[in-house]
Amino acid sequence: MNAKWLIAPIAAAALFVSGQASADLDLAKKSGCLACHGIDKKIVGPSWHDIATKYKDDTGARDLLIDKVKKGGKGTWGPAPMPPFSPRVSDVNIEKLVDFILAL
């Protein structure tokens, strides 16, 4: 296959991923996540990169983190508690946020 025919689909995919990441980051801002978490730095809670790294090979991580965001928790990353975000943030949006974090 001619390499020039691959450029357009690859560029389109990159734009989609970039646009989706931007939408997910906007959702995180609107949901209040950035008050305690940075993408690559600890604020009150761990950075999302640290979370993604910790759970990289954990097949149960997605469900665990969805539950943690919904119900809150404490003790995993230190003494500061994670407040519950359900029902203030919908289940669908919580799933999108967790998927975004785990994909970092």
UniProtKB/TrEMBL annotation:
User: What's a Gene Ontology MF term here?
Assistant: electron transfer activity
* Domain called Cytochrome c: residue spans: 14-104
Q: Which InterPro entries match?
A: Cyt_c-like_dom (IPR009056), Cyt_c-like_dom_sf (IPR036909), Cyt_c_ID (IPR002324)
Which keywords, in A-to-Z order, does the entry hold?
Electron transport, Heme, Iron, Metal-binding, Transport
The protein's name: Cytochrome c domain-containing protein
